[in-house]
Design goal:
The protein has helices at residues 9-18, 32-43, 66-69; strands spanning 24-26, 48-50. The protein starts with 8 loop residues before the first helix and ends in a 14-residue tail after the last helix. Strand 1 (24-26), helix 2 (32-43) and strand 2 form a beta-alpha-beta unit. It is extended. It is mainly alpha-helical and 83 residues long. The chain is built from three helices and two strands; from the N terminus they run H-E-H-E-H.
Length: 83
C-alpha cells in the first residue's frame, strides 16, 4: 500500500519522520537544511529513508525503478494444506 500525502514539506516531513506507523520516507524535495533532522527522527522507529542525490531531481526524465525499489519488499506466504 502506498499513501501519497500532499502539503508543505517543512510542516509534514518532521511529523511523518517521527510517526511510528509510517514505514518509509522519500526525502526528495525536502530542503537540505532539514535532511539531517528528518533522518534522526526516522531512526527512532527504524524507518526506511531514501535521501535524494546531490543533484537536483529532474522530474522530466523517464522514470526508473531505483526510487521505488528502495521501499519494496517481497514476502512469500505459505498456505499449508492439512492432511
Amino acid at each position: 500500500m502506498v499513501n501519497l500525502i500532499t502539503g508543505l514539506v517543512a510542516e509534514l516531513a518532521p511529523v511523518l519522520a517521527a510517526h511510528r506507523d509510517v514505514d518509509a520516507l522519500d526525502l526528495a524535495g525536502a530542503p537540505s537544511s532539514l535532511l539531517a533532522d528528518l533522518e534522526r527522527a526516522a531512526v527512532t522507529n527504524v524507518k526506511r529513508v531514501l535521501r535524494p542525490d546531490n543533484s537536483e531531481i529532474d522530474w522530466t526524465k523517464a522514470p526508473t525503478p531505483r526510487r521505488m525499489l528502495a521501499f519494496l519488499e517481497t514476502k512469500t506466504v505459505w498456505h499449508p494444506i492439512g492432511l
